[in-house]
């Protein structure tokens, strides 16, 4: 099961960015191309499912990811998919044109579904993924909870999705919402493992970005950004014009991760700044034993 998620899962990570994954939108094709020489080979790159982007643009993004030597992981946002046909056509095109083997399913923000799928389980239970040869399915993890569910309901849904994916012969992967509060994320992963959920986990980390951009995305995505949490992250609300990287967050994770947290890697949300995010990752890597240098023989 492990190599299906990333070749590096089989061994202990050399540093916190070892085996990282990235996210892009269909608009980021040119910046992915520009950043590609600096991105580790076979890095998983998720392609978001945003309103205002059509299937052709998303397929083109996935094709570019594959052509550049990375592993495309298209998102399927259940509530934004308008018909069974739209779902099946996008999946088939992603497989045929980009050799997609991994997909990520998420409910999506619309309060009412725009089509036949009200949650990510409905996509998993459609049977379409395994029928198209998909080997791994990513699902969302919510260290800060979920506005529509109690914590117990949230765990039950997560357990149910992992079980359904495995029952269908695929490997589950949990990718968490980005966060600014590393301690909260560590507590959540410990609770997840204590419940017996042993699926690989990718912890969502914001890429370096302007503070206004970070706050805009936090508000849009329901991510906690209190003054206290931002201060731990290294942002002072008196300096809205500046920018901030995930240095302190990643240090907190690195210092706090224990065997009890199980297999964990990072997933970066670049918020439009892929090149800046990759530069940050490589700086961090160079300062912490340089796994990328070893992989490329530099
Ligand atoms: N804005 C916020 O504060 C946050 C929002 N979310 C939302 O929760 C969703 C969670 O996705 P998954 O973990 O894949 O959940 P899921 O697909 O496994 O669904 C779990 C349950 O939540 C319900 N649900 C999901 N999204 C909903 C929505 N937008 N409105 C009303 N009910 C909803 C589903 O019908 C289902 O019963 C995300 O797509 C995101 O929209 C999650 C965390 C923070
Ligand atoms: N609840 C929730 N809803 C989401 O839509 C969502 C999350 N969580 N978590 C993180 C991901 C990442 N998402 C996104 C959304 C937009 C861009 C993006 O680049 N959008 C612009 C730029 C706009 C801006 O800077 O505000 C674009 O051109 O589309 C990137 C990632 C959406 N995501």
TrEMBL record:
Taxonomic superkingdom: Bacteria
Cofactor(s) for this UniProt protein: FAD
Pathway it works in: Amino-acid biosynthesis; L-methionine biosynthesis via de novo pathway; One-carbon metabolism; tetrahydrofolate interconversion
UniProt xrefs under InterPro entries: FAD-linked_oxidoreductase-like, Mehydrof_redctse-like
UniProt keywords, alphabetically: FAD, Flavoprotein, Oxidoreductase
Catalytic activity, as annotated: (6S)-5-methyl-5,6,7,8-tetrahydrofolate + NAD(+) = (6R)-5,10-methylene-5,6,7,8-tetrahydrofolate + NADH + H(+)
UniProt keyword Flavoprotein present: yes
GO BP of this protein: methionine biosynthetic process; tetrahydrofolate interconversion
Listed Gene3D superfamilies: 3.20.20.220
Listed GO MF terms: FAD binding; methylenetetrahydrofolate reductase (NADH) activity
Extent of the signal sequence: none
One Gene Ontology cellular component: cytosol
Family in the record: Belongs to the methylenetetrahydrofolate reductase family.
PANTHER family found in the cross-reference section: METHYLENETETRAHYDROFOLATE REDUCTASE, METHYLENETETRAHYDROFOLATE REDUCTASE (NADPH)
UniProt protein name: Methylenetetrahydrofolate reductase
Origin species: Sphingomonas guangdongensis
């Amino acid at each position: 099961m492990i190599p299906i998620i990333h070749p590096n899962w089989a061994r202990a990570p050399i540093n916190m960015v070892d085996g990282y994954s990235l996210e892009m939108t269909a608009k980021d094709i040119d910046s992915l191309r520009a950043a590609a020489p600096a991105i580790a080979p076979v890095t998983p790159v998720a392609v978001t499912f945003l309103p205002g982007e059509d299937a052709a643009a998303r397929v083109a993004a996935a094709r570019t990811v594959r052509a550049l030597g990375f592993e495309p992981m298209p998102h399927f946002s259940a509530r934004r998919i308008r018909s069974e046909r739209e779902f099946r056509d996008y999946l088939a095109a992603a497989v045929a044109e980009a050799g997609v083997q991994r997909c990520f399913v998420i409910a999506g923000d619309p309060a009412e579904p725009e089509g036949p799928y009200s949650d990510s389980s409905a996509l998993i239970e459609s049977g379409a993924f395994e029928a198209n040869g998909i080997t791994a399915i990513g699902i969302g993890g919510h260290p800060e909870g979920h506005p529509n569910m109690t914590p117990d309901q949230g765990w039950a849904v997560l357990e149910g999705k992992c079980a359904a994916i495995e029952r269908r012969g695929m490997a589950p992967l949990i990718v968490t919402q980005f966060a600014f509060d590393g301690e909260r994320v560590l507590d959540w992963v410990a609770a997840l493992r204590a419940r017996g959920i042993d699926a690989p986990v990718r912890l969502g980390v914001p890429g370096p970005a302007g503070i206004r951009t970070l706050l805009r995305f936090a508000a849009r995505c329901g991510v906690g950004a209190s003054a206290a949490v931002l201060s731990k992250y290294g942002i002072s609300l008196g300096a809205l014009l500046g920018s901030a990287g995930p240095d302190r967050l990643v240090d907190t994770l690195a210092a706090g991760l224990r065997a009890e947290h199980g297999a964990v890697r990072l997933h970066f949300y670049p918020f439009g700044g892929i090149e800046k995010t990759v530069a940050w990752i490589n700086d961090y890597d160079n300062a912490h034993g340089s796994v990328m240098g070893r992989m490329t023989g530099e």
